[in-house]
Amino acid sequence: MKGARNLQDMTTKPGKGGRKKAAKRQWRDYRTENEGRPIEKFFDALTDDEAAAVLAGMKEVEKLGLPAARHLDGDIYEVITDSATRSFRLLFATEGRYSQILLSLSGYEKRGQKTPRAEIDLAERRLSDWRRRGAARRGAARRRRR
Length: 146
Fold this sequence. Notes:
Structural class: alpha+beta
Largest sheet: 5 strands, mixed
Strand content: 25-35%
Distance between the termini: 30 Å
Number of strands: 7
Radius of gyration: 17 Å
Strand order of the largest sheet: 3-7-6-5-4
């Protein structure tokens, strides 16, 4: 895409009368081809308080958009959360015409200063897989309509 886009362009869509209104953001979990949900496994390993802290961070990004997250690399962002005893990160990307889908890709406990390259690579592979399968589904739907 040529030229820089401002954040408002990425998070608004045309409304009635040409006015722009905010696109409602919503979280979706990455699913494997076998319908597995790695993020669900991440949450299952957390205590109730830790899960609540991660969910609060997710809600903040849902409400405020990308300024509430940290950009890591390419299309990958992270939600930064702290519970009483541990810190967690949730890696995600935005999808959809107006970046209204917040696609959770990977979650982990923070143990060092930098985000582990392996976590970023995992998130990028999952995002690539998600997009590849979505493009294949859209292509199949177009062929059925003809």
